Known about the structure:
The protein has helices at residues 6-33, 48-60, 93-101, 127-139, 147-159, and strands at 42-44, 140-142. By secondary structure, it is mostly helical. The chain has a domain at 42-70 and 80-163: Orthogonal Bundle (Cytochrome Bc1 Complex, Chain D, domain 2). Strands 1-2 form a two-stranded antiparallel ribbon. The longest helix is centred in the first third of the chain and has 28 residues, at 6-33. The model has no long low-confidence stretch (mean pLDDT 86).
Amino acid sequence: xxxxxxxxxxxxxxxxxxxxxxxxxxxxxxxxxxxxxxxxxxxxxxxxxxxxxxxxxxxxxxxxxxxxxxxxxxxxxxxxxxxxxxxxxxxxxxxxxxxxxxxxxxxxxxxxxxxxxxxxxxxxxxxxxxxxxxxxxxxxxxxxxxxxxxxxxxxxxxxxxxxxxxxxxx
Length: 170
């Protein structure tokens, strides 16, 4: 094994000290800045029978082609329409029923989405099914600490614009 020259030893020692120092700094920073995990912010207040009925409608109407619900989102897998997690904290059951019953849902909630991704009218569904969907969507809640993030995500998906404080509902 070749013997290291004095300059080489100093360079290796300096690199070692820098690496150890950076590692120590990161450990200290992680310990001091760590927030407690608040858990999953989304939940539903729906009864199991409503959840089943709405889930069947969600699948039969192919809602998951455009919307995500109870999923972990990835930057590589994006759905074109707003996620439904927590949507019931933004809109009421009555609003959802009007929206699902409208011949043109864009007249209630305009969207920048391409035509093939815009919300289709569900006015042709039986009234009981539209009411079940409305009740279920209104049950999809988000904890208060995550409400603003949900509002921002919906706004940006629908408009394609960055959200600012001036858009906040008062």
